[in-house]
């Protein structure tokens, strides 16, 4: 039996440092979503922190996941906001969270046996790979902002993660970010003006829709809520990737119904306060893979720190001054780690890629997931793209292709 993720309690000082490292990993992406959609970054930080704590309570403190702003909802939130304002976007996001909660109840009733049948390692492995590889263009764009800084940050992180000992061994991301920041400051690409302008303490500007706004914004549900269908597939992929990283079957314990419920309640809570929908973060999965420290308490510490950042404006502004190139160097490694976890899933489950059936499934999932190929569902304003579409195609191929297909070339000679 595997040890509990809470086994081997860490000293409080290490929990603090490791929590700060996870905070840095999630910060950039979490504030980017509200910046792109016109929502309040401080509210996004607050709701991601509280949402993460909610998730940990619902999943019985067993799943070391951090929940941050979801990129999948960016386009529909912008569309709903233009048509119905922020209240419309939030009503749609609230409905998406309620769909998660509803599906959680369905899964709790019917069980998860369907996962083993429809999501074997030959499907799960490449789907996990597409999570990391699909984010590669994001890493490229960030690193390209100032390539020398990105390369320096990446180099420091790699050296620390491989050669360092003791405490430094488990905080390579934090050391890399600090080193990269100093390097970027030397080259004059750090702008500290936002720190000087920010207040020390300020309450996040929460946006709670009124009853009249709720009624007027109901059509926005049709714009945002259907995306929940796609993001539930992504949620499953993230949970499987997380389980592979820490060598635990989270689908079984605490159960997919609990992880989905935690995600849904966190998203609904965020929408009620004017924050973007939440999702489990690949960046933090990458940190878990590098540090090998899987204790959920570390993530909970990160959530507490982020909660503080939502009120301490100067510190939050300081973190936002981290140049994209610094984080670009970091995510090159983090996103690659996620892809490697998918590859490990194939290897450890001895998926035979000399079998044509397996080769077809893996190849198709990888190309669809990495290319970002999109499919618009007729009659609905819903787009399946990237990992979501790749996962669905993989499931269909796994059902339709007979397992008796072999590929021994000698049989055809």
From TrEMBL:
Keywords annotated in UniProt: Membrane, Transmembrane, Transmembrane helix, Transport
Annotated TM spans: 39-58, 63-80, 86-106, 118-139, 145-164, 171-194, 214-233, 297-319, 325-347, 359-378, 384-401
Topology within the bilayer: Multi-pass membrane protein
The keyword Chaperone belongs to this UniProt entry's keyword annotation: no
InterPro entries, per the entry: NCS2, Xan_ur_permease
Domain of life (superkingdom): Bacteria
MF-aspect GO terms: xanthine transmembrane transporter activity
Keyword Ligase: no
Entry GO CC: plasma membrane
Cell compartments where the protein resides: Membrane
PANTHER family from the UniProt entry: PURINE PERMEASE C1399.01C-RELATED (PTHR42810:SF2)
Family to which this protein belongs: Belongs to the nucleobase:cation symporter-2 (NCS2) (TC 2.A.40) family.
Protein name in the entry: Uracil permease
Organism: Selenihalanaerobacter shriftii
């Amino acid at each position: 039996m595997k040890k509990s993720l809470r086994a081997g309690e860490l000293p409080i000082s290490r929990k603090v440092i490791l929590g700060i490292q996870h905070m840095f990993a999630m910060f950039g992406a979490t504030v980017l979503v509200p910046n792109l959609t016109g929502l309040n970054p401080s509210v996004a930080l607050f709701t991601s922190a509280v949402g993460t704590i909610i998730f940990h309570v619902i999943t019985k403190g067993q799943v070391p996941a951090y929940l941050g702003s979801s990129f999948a909802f960016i386009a529909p939130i912008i569309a709903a906001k233009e048509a119905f304002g922020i209240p419309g976007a939030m009503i749609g996001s609230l409905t998406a969270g309620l769909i998660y909660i509803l599906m959680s109840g369905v899964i709790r009733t019917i069980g998860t046996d369907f996962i083993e049948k429809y999501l074997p390692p030959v499907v799960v492995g490449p789907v996990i790979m597409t999570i990391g590889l699909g984010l590669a263009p994001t890493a490229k764009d960030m690193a390209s902002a100032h390539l020398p800084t990105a390369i320096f940050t990446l180099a420091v992180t790699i050296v620390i993660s491989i050669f360092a000992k003791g405490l430094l061994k488990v905080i390579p991301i934090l050391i890399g970010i600090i080193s990269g920041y100093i390097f970027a400051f030397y080259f004059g690409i750090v702008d500290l003006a936002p720190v000087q302008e920010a207040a020390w303490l300020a309450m996040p500007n929460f946006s709670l829709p009124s009853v009249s706004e709720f009624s007027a914004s109901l059509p926005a549900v049709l714009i945002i809520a259907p995306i929940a269908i796609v993001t539930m597939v992504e949620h499953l992929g993230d949970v499987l990737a997380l389980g592979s990283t820490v060598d635990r079957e989270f689908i079984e314990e605490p159960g997919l119904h609990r992880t989905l419920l935690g995600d849904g309640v966190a998203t609904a809570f965020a929408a009620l306060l004017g924050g973007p929908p939440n999702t489990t973060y690949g960046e933090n999965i990458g940190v878990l893979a590098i540090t090998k420290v899987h204790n959920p308490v570390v993530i909970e510490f990160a959530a507490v720190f982020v909660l503080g950042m939502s009120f301490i404006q100067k510190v939050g502004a300081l973190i936002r001054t981290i140049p994209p190139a610094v984080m670009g160097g970091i995510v090159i490694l983090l996103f690659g780690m996620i892809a490697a976890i998918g590859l490990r899933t194939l290897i450890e489950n001895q998926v035979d890629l000399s079998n044509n059936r397996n080769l077809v499934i893996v190849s198709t999932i990888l190309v669809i997931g990495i290319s970002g190929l999109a499919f618009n569902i007729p009659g609905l304003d819903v787009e399946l793209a990237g990992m979501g579409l790749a996962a669905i195609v993989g499931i269909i191929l796994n059902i339709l292709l007979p397992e008796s297909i072999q590929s021994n070339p000698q049989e055809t000679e």
